[in-house]
Amino acid sequence: MDKKIPYKIYLEESEMPKQWYNVRADMKNKPAPLLNPGTLQPVTLEEMSHIFCEDLAKQELDDTTPYFDIPQEIQDFYRMYRPSPLVRAYCLEKELDTPAKIYYKFEGNNTSGSHKLNSAIAQAYYAKKQGLKGVTTETGAGQWGTALSMACSYFHLDCKVFMVKVSYEQKPFRREVMRTYGASVTPSPSNTTEVGRKILAEHPGTTGSLGCAISEAVEAATTNEGYRYVLGSVLTQVLLHQSVIGLETKAALDKYDIHPDIIIGCAGGGSNLGGLISPFAGEMLRGENHYQIIAVEPASCPSLTRGHYAYDFCDTGKVCPLAKMYTLGCDFIPSPNHAGGLRYHGMSPVISQLYDDHIIEARSVEQTAVFEAAERFARVEGILPAPESSHAIRVAIDEALKCKETGEEKTIVFGLTGTGYFDMVAYEKYNNGEMSDYIPSDETLAAEFAKLPKVE
Ligand SMILES: *Cc1c(COP(=O)(O)O)cnc(C)c1O
Q1: Between β-strands 86-88 and 101-106, what pairing exists: parallel, antiparallel or unpaired?
Q2: What pTM value is reported for the model?
């Protein structure tokens, strides 16, 4: 055991990041611009500002400024639950009997239980600064809605959450956390919006999807005076806010002169992964350093490993701007029995471009293998991981076991994005041996790809 490195590497408050890092500034191949769904021309700041808070729209469109100051109010809020620890997984290393050195950045130490609060507080801050009454959003598994309700209650903003119906029914406790923080929660699709009524008419009995819920939340924002829409992932502004994860990780590693060989993150919409890897990818893009970066996604929703890199709608109702991204098609609805919250049809345009440029690689994993890794991790490291986070654990364990075979002492860093206390139905299924591995067929995917909008 390497005695010099503590179990937990913490930063002093004075060492915490005071700026977010915008990796696009260092990308030669910039992510393609978002397009207006009506004109198919790049969206302007003015058009964006009808849907999004103005400062956030500016961040979204800025691909040249490398650093943004973190406003003092946000830094103060961060100090309530940050810095998050970078943990040396000595116990997991011992359990695996591997020469690899494993670290994880743990983002589950706040009531929302995930990294999502890092961006929620930023988005609520800018909404408040603009003098808005409130914000609308969607939530899938519920972590984003929880984080946003917490952030909104802190800044005394109203918060309307459209929650994917299957989660609303399966995760009543998540819903109650949101309501405790003052948010209103509506199961989606609902008959409270025009687009919701349309989707219900076309697909009666649907259990909903993130794409549907986004359309409803956007409509609620644009039809209620003093409201704007906020999103918990995919958008570049979210990756920008989440860069606090990577900047802290890098500062902690630098304190002990640790150079990671492999950096691993789970990828739903790409925000935690993008945040974790941004400073490291920046070094690669500037030719200063090399890392192996791995995005891990579920085999049931494999946007990077099996999707097409194309312009697509971000939502089922086709009201949001189009993004060029790895996508499974905006109508793709992954199997409802899938336990994780990594169920979005597309991937962040930044992550998509970095993947296309071979700065990062991607793997897909099946959910029983994910829960096997989750349980193994929980039993030695003490933390009950979120199913989403456990995708990263799976690949970290796989890489550590490879090191055992080859004798290589690689340093592996992965993002442990949250805790799984609200996911016990999924754990129950796993423990009862009732979990299935749903993988979409090539035919299913081909039918969705055929419907992708034709944009040159
Ligand atoms: C939302 C969520 C994810 C996936 O979202 P990304 O935007 O891809 O980071 C991963 N882990 C947890 C715990 C989450 O709540």
Answers
A1: antiparallel
A2: 0.96
Pick the residue whose CA is nearest to atom 5 on ligand 1.
Answer: 268
Q: How far is the CA of 375 from the centre of ligand 1 (A)?
A: 19
Nearest CA to ligand 1 atom 13: 418
Residue 147 Cα to ligand 1 middle (Å)? 12
Q: Is the CB of 386 under 6 A from ligand 1?
A: yes
* High-pLDDT (> 70) share of the chain, %: 98
Atom of ligand 1 nearest to the CA of 140: 1
- Helices 172-180 and 143-154 pack at an angle, to 10 degrees, of 10
- Ligand 1 contact via 174 beta carbon (within 6 Å): no
User: What is the whole-number distance in angstroms between the Cα of residue 386 and the centre of ligand 1?
Assistant: 9
175: region left, alpha or beta (phi > 0 left; psi from -120 to 50 alpha) = alpha
In the numeric block, the tokens 């109650």 are attached to 176
CA-closest residue to ligand 1 atom 4: 268
| Rounded-to-integer distance, Cα 29 and Cα 27, Å | 5
pLDDT for 183 equals 98
> Which atom of ligand 1 is the closest one to the Cα of 386?
13
Is the shortest distance between the CB of 270 and ligand 1 below 6 Å? yes
Report the separation in Å between the CA atom of 388 and the middle of ligand 1, taken as the mean of its atom positions.
Answer: 6
The torsion region of residue 318 among left (phi > 0), alpha (psi -120 to 50) and beta comes to left
Work out which ligand 1 atom sits closest to the CA atom of 114: 13
What is the tens place of the pLDDT at every residue in 20-63?
999 999 999 999 999 999 999 999 999 999 999 999 999 999 99
Q: Counting atoms of ligand 1 from 1, which one is nearest the CA of 107?
A: 13
What separation in Å is there between the alpha carbon of 272 and the centre of ligand 1? Answer: 6
- Assess whether the C-beta atom of 210 lies below 6 angstroms from ligand 1: no
Amino acid at 240: L
Calculate the alpha carbon distances from 431 to 306, 426, 427 in Å. 29, 9, 6
